[in-house]
Amino acid sequence: MYKKILLPVVLSEKSSWEKALPVAISLCHTYGASLHLLTVLPEFNMPMVGSFFPANFSEKAHLTLKEELKQWAKENIPEDIKVQRVVADGSPWETIIEISKKVDADLIVMAAHNKRNFADYVLGPNSAHVVRHSKKSVMVVR
After folding, report:
1. For the CA atoms of the chain, what is the radius of gyration?
2. Which residues lie across from 141 on neighbouring strands?
3. Are 91 and 44 in contact (CB under 8 A)?
């Protein structure tokens, strides 16, 4: 049923993957699917934001994040699952949808983990946006 599963993660926020990761792994094992890990780096190139960071900050951040994602995958994903890792820039929910199209994911598995206010407690804003706007199937794990 599923061949490619996309799992967005924020490496520094365990709640972004703690419950969603076991579900994604189980689905990969059940369907023989590959797992596409995505972490999104905010856009630092915007003039208003970029002026506060050194010129090459974005490139260094990308390299660091790629290495951290590689190590995280090695520590958390069983060796029998084919893993692809993606680090992308942009708005988290828009980037999740864009990358799901790019990798031709059958399913997006993500956590509802943001708890800023009552509405976000029920379903994080990024998860809610992905559910509303994605043409792909989305499984939100609580």
Report:
1. 15
2. 111
3. no
Give the Cα separation of 59 and 76 in Å (integer).
26
pTM check: above 0.90: no
Fold observed for domain 4-141: Rossmann fold (3.40.50)
The full set of domain ranges for the chain reads 4-141
DSSP H or E segment with residue 101? helix 92-102
Q: Is residue 93 a contact partner of residue 10, using CB atoms and an 8 Å limit?
A: no
Spatial distance between the Cα atoms of 16 and 33, rounded to a whole number of angstroms: 21
Q: Write the pLDDT tens digit of every residue in 91-105.
A: 899 999 999 999 999
Mean pLDDT of the 80-88 span: 97
DSSP 80: T
